[in-house]
Design brief:
With 188 residues, the protein is an all-alpha fold. It is built from seven helices and no strands. The protein starts with 5 loop residues before the first helix and ends with a helix.
Length: 188
């Protein structure tokens, strides 16, 4: 649940704010400045983002490395999604840790988190690809996790509702990926 409610909502909000980069430097900087000025910002960061994310990451690593993947025995779509959820979770964790280090931790030491910072980071071709892969991995992990959330919370219990949910979450993945990739490419 922590991967969907606080973390998933934050991911969506973060991608939308970053998408302001498609409107240019001033547009992005204004959106980022607005987020910096939120009341109770540190409380929100700690209790709505960092602690749920930390718990999700630790528990997710445990699941990823103890899971019994059976795609070699069964080639069913959901078996592949089960395995890709674990792989994308590890990739996402590496990406998010690096992104937090490069931006949030740097800001704590006085760096300005703005359009220029991201433009500089993404001017390196390796970092550009790292961010593109990281965004796609993160949006996949969220969307596929959303499907699992619907099943485990009894929202989609019938096979038909699970098929419908599959199409909806694929749509979520595609939509958020487009938003995220467009934001990244706006800095290039």
């Amino acid at each position: 649940m922590l991967g969907v409610i606080p973390v998933g909502l934050f991911l969506t909000q973060h991608l939308v704010v970053n998408h302001f980069a498609t409107g240019g430097e001033e547009s992005f900087n204004n959106a980022a400045h607005f987020m910096e000025q939120l009341p109770f910002r540190y409380f929100l960061e700690v209790f709505i983002i960092f602690l749920p994310l930390l718990f999700h990451a630790i528990y997710g690593l445990y699941i990823a490395f103890t899971a019994k993947n059976n795609i070699g025995q069964y080639g069913y779509f959901r078996n592949w999604m089960f395995m890709l959820q674990r792989v994308s979770g590890v990739v996402t964790l590496i990406f998010v840790a690096w992104h937090v280090w490069e931006t949030r931790i740097a800001a704590a030491f006085g760096a300005a988190v703005n359009f220029q910072m991201m433009e500089t980071i993404l001017s390196n071709p390796f970092m550009l690809w790292f961010y593109l892969i990281g965004i796609i991995s993160t949006t996949f992990h969220f969307a596929n996790g959303l499907w699992s959330f619907f099943v485990s919370w009894g929202i989609t219990v019938t096979p038909r509702s699970q098929v419908i949910s599959t199409y909806i979450t694929i749509g979520v993945f595609v939509a958020l990926s487009i938003v995220g990739v467009r934001a990244i490419l706006a800095f290039v």
